[in-house]
Amino acid sequence: MYILADEKRKPSANGAKNAKQKGLSESFIDRLQLDSESITSIANTLKDIASFEDPVGKVLANWTRPNGLQISRVSTPLGVIGIIYESRPNVTVDASVLCIKAGNASVLRGGSDSLNSSLAIHKCLVAGLKEAGISEHAIQIVDDTDREAVKLMLQGINKSIDVIVPRGGKSLVAEVEKEAKVPVFGHLEGICHIYVDKEADEDKSVNVCLNAKMRRPGICGAVETILIHKDIANSFRTNNS
């Protein structure tokens, strides 16, 4: 199932066909896809996050000053986190639920191509919040594809947003960092490497390398470069070609 947003934000009758008509790449379409397997994966992610230890109130460090003053560094919620991301609708779950787990509210703004998918997922999240007795406003989503909505978020929406987290490609992060009037948690452009050492278990290394690339080649976390120790490079490639 593919759900794509058009200019009027109406669900597409044939999202896969529309995606191809738009000239989107196969890897991009793969990131948009929601099928039974990916939905099960999203549900499992929710269960995993629910099982995490509560990070709030955890003492990260403590020390005593020469005058006897005791100081502690304690983890606390940040407040309201604005999250700007691109095509993958599962980020709607990952980002918002991690925020909830850490005691934060979130304002989400996903890519226009996955808008309807994100809206459907958000509706489910709101239902879960209500059932758990948590304010439905703890997870909010921008349902407007206009760029002005992003500008308002980057300006902090009248000091309602405490920090912005961009999740996407290099150009997105650079644009957010340039325009934001509130703190930004940016990231560098990642290149996913695997290094196979000469002491590594060969069978296990092959399985890891294949899984890292072939499990889902279109995602940003798929391995891009495999580095093999020179002492085993020839034999490793020959035995596993």
Provide a compact summary of the structure:
This protein is of the alpha/beta class.
Residue share in helix: 25-40%
**Beta-strand percent range:** 15-25%
Domains counted in the coordinates: how many? 2
- By CATH reckoning, the class of the largest domain would read Alpha Beta
Named CATH topology of the largest domain: Aldehyde Dehydrogenase, Chain A, domain 1
Head-to-tail CA distance between termini: 35 Å
**Sheet with the most strands, sense and barrel status:** 4 strands, parallel
> Tell me, what's the shape?
globular
CATH homology-level superfamily of the largest domain? Aldehyde Dehydrogenase, Chain A, domain 1
Q: Report the uncertain regions.
A: 1-17
Number of strands: 8
> Count of helices?
9
Mean pLDDT: 85
Assembly state: single chain
Specify the CATH architecture of the largest domain: 3-Layer(aba) Sandwich
Radius of gyration: 21 Å
What is the N-to-C order of secondary-structure elements (H for helix, E for strand)? HHHEEEHEHEHEHEHEH
* Side-by-side strand order of the widest sheet: 5-4-3-6
Kindly describe this structure.
- The protein is an alpha/beta fold and 241 residues long.
- It has two domains: 175 residues, Aldehyde Dehydrogenase, Chain A, domain 1; 52 residues, no CATH class.
- 40% of the residues lie in helices and 16% in strands.
- The protein is built from nine helices and eight strands.
- Strands 5-4-3-6 form a four-stranded parallel sheet, with helices on both faces. A two-stranded antiparallel sheet has the order 1-2.
- Helix 8 links the parallel strand 7 and strand 8.
- Helix 3 runs parallel beside helix 4.
- The N terminus is likely disordered.
